[in-house]
């Protein structure tokens, strides 16, 4: 079975999505664009990417929340940097990818450049997110477990490629070459997870989105890379998984099930790996009405995949910047237990030195649950030892936002409005109600530029 050619043919000629899949995809576009708006003022990590796009000039595509246009690849680059910088966008919990963070910036940029309809962009987003998830489903275990490559955060580049290729009308042969050109642009090192000053974890989808758009345009114009991108002897899974991959999992329901519609939306602006702990902590806080001073010690059970956001302890206990704090179980748990909430304001610079939060972060101990599979990575358990010697415990398998434990539609809209209020260009420059309406009726738009310019 030729996996690469099957996926390439699907990208080139797959049919339209169902009304239900369209609804879920529009919810993801609403969520993702709201987070991008908020990042415009809150995520200083993304500022150099935006300014690079601004300096280039151009008129192809809008940079969300900033009121200017840039060449299509740089618009995708800037918007991609905004997409994950707050770590507040949706997640496919089963694989831990963020399937819309690169796909939405790429699809909006290419769609605006070519004058695509809202329906065409909607289908491209659903397709691209699905491809991202399916490539991730091919790994039987964490692809970061046996080598130093950073793999999972960069899978979105292939989704961005698929979305761009669909909008540009590439043939199956051209799609395969676009995938190969993406492969040769995007690779990463796990060292970024240990370097305190790294901006890469926050802005990685700039590279993913730009690579996908660039690869699709070059393949359209006749540039070739190589064949058998995913399943060849020197292909993706050979290099990153020792040749071990689950073809059946990748292809199951292809064209009928769109995995990007099975995402979890984030109620809290931190790494999804912290959410089970926040969820459990907030439940305990609500039920028992304790104060931070009542807690002597915190113990957590964590999956093997997310040990990286509890270690190294000196970095996780006292994060030096907001992005680092979002990737810390001890810190986010400390916020939840101290304040009974976790919001965007809790990762501002002046909030990182709260003594009660830091004391609880220091008081956090952990146990790695090796019996939890990679597919259970977002699971977590919390036990509090109180100063009077009593204990309180809670475990969460599917944190709030998961399809089986969903956020309401009203909650998603409220989140969008809250995010839009932080836009670099203030809310007075755009009609939030109109943007929500445009996304809700995206498939009726003759030109997606109506939406992108409203977001700009």
TrEMBL record:
Residues 268-437 form the MmgE/PrpD C-terminal domain. GO terms for molecular function: lyase activity. Gene3D superfamilies: 2-methylcitrate dehydratase PrpD. Residues 23-243 form the MmgE/PrpD N-terminal domain. Signal peptide: none annotated. SUPFAM superfamilies: 2-methylcitrate dehydratase PrpD. Belongs to the PrpD family. This is MmgE/PrpD family protein.
């Amino acid at each position: 079975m030729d996996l690469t050619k099957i996926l390439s043919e699907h990208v080139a000629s797959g049919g339209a999505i169902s009304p239900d899949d369209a609804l879920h995809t529009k919810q993801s576009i609403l969520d993702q664009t709201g987070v991008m708006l908020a990042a415009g003022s809150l995520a200083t990590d993304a500022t150099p990417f935006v300014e690079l796009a601004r300096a280039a000039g151009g008129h192809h595509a809008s940079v969300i929340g900033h009121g200017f246009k840039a060449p299509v690849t740089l618009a995708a680059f800037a918007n991609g940097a905004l997409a994950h910088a707050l770590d507040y966008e949706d997640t496919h919990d089963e694989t831990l990818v963020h399937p819309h963070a690169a796909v939405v910036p790429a699809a909006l940029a290419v769609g605006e450049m070519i004058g695509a309809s809202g329906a065409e962009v909607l289908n491209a987003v659903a397709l691209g997110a699905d491809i991202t998830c399916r490539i991730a489903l091919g790994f039987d275990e964490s692809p970061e477990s046996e080598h130093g490559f950073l793999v999972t955060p960069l899978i979105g580049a292939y989704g961005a490629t698929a979305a761009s290729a669909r909008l540009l009308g590439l043939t199956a042969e051209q799609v395969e070459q676009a995938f190969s050109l993406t492969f040769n642009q995007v690779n990463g090192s796990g060292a970024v997870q240990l370097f305190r000053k790294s901006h890469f974890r926050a802005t990685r989808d700039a590279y993913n989105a730009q690579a996908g758009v660039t690869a699709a345009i070059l393949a359209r114009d006749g540039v070739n890379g190589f064949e058998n991108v995913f399943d060849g002897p020197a292909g993706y899974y050979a290099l990153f998984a020792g040749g071990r991959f689950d073809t059946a999992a990748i292809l199951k329901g292809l064209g009928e099930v769109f995995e990007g519609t099975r995402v979890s939306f984030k109620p809290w602006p931190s790494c999804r790996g912290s959410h089970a702990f926040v969820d459990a902590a907030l439940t305990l806080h609500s039920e028992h009405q304790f104060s931070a001073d009542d807690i002597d010690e915190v113990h957590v059970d964590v999956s093997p995949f997310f040990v990286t956001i509890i270690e190294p302890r000196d970095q996780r206990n006292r994060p030096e910047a907001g992005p680092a704090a979002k990737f810390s179980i001890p810190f986010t748990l400390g916020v939840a237990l101290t304040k009974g909430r976790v919001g965007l304001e809790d990762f501002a610079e002046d909030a990182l030195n709260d003594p009660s939060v830091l004391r609880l972060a220091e008081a956090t101990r952990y146990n790695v649950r090796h019996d939890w599979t990679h597919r259970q990575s977002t699971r977590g358990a919390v036990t509090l030892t109180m100063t009077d010697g009593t204990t309180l415990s809670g475990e969460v398998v599917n944190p709030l936002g998961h399809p089986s434990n969903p956020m309401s539609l009203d909650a998603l809209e409220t989140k969008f409005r809250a995010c839009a209020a932080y836009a670099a260009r203030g809310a007075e420059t755009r009609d939030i109600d109109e943007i929500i309406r445009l996304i809700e009726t995206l498939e009726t738009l003759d030109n997606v530029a109506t939406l992108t310019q409203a977001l700009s």
